[in-house]
Amino acid sequence: MKNIILVVVILLLSTSYCYAGSKVDGKVMNDAKVKESMNMAIGDGSKANMGSIKMKNSEVGKGGVMTNKADIQKSMNMAIGDKSTANMGSITMDGSKVKGRVLNNAKVNESMNMAVGKGSTANMASITMKNSKVGKSGMIHNKADIEKSMNMSIGKDSEANMGSISLE
């Protein structure tokens, strides 16, 4: 019984947000402090998120704002497998929208982020939106302070972003 409670508490204190079908109607905030930790996903549809916000079909709306503040020290985030993904101190959206402001403030020190596999991706202290849009006076801001860290993507469709903003 104690083990089940411990697992539930750990899941509730997780430092990444993930909204699959998405929608929100204003503000998504993540304030993550990760120290000497390891986060790993292994398997065909692997994904690993550490100190990150990840939404899929997206939208935030009504005044927008999406804020991720991540302080990651001496940690490792890894995704290994066919459709791997690994995000560390990042904001990733897919179908996107927002209606005003997307802010990422990431401090990454002596850490490693890695994606290995066929459809690999690795994002460190980055903002990645796919079909995008921000609107209502816009603004996308990424402040990345990265020291002695490594971001790596290995595999067929590899891609690695470090301290960057990528919109498609």
Task: Classify the oligomer.
Answer: single chain
Helix content bin: under 10%
Order of helices and strands: HEEEEEEEEEEEEEEEEE
- Supply the number of helical segments: 1
Largest sheet: 5 strands, parallel
- Major sheet: arrangement of strands: 1-5-9-13-17
What is the number of strand segments? 17
Task: Kindly give the count of domains.
Answer: 1
Regions with pLDDT < 50 over 5+ consecutive residues? Answer: 4-19
Written description of the protein model:
This protein has 168 residues and is mainly β. It has 1 helix and 17 strands. The chain has one helix spanning 2-12, and strands at residues 17-19, 28-35, 38-42, 48-50, 53-55, 66-73, 76-80, 86-88, 91-92, 102-109, 112-116, 122-124, 127-129, 140-147, 150-154, 160-162, 165-167. The strands form 4 sheets. A 5-stranded parallel β-sheet has the order 1-5-9-13-17, with no helix packed on it. The radius of gyration is 15 Å and the shape is globular.
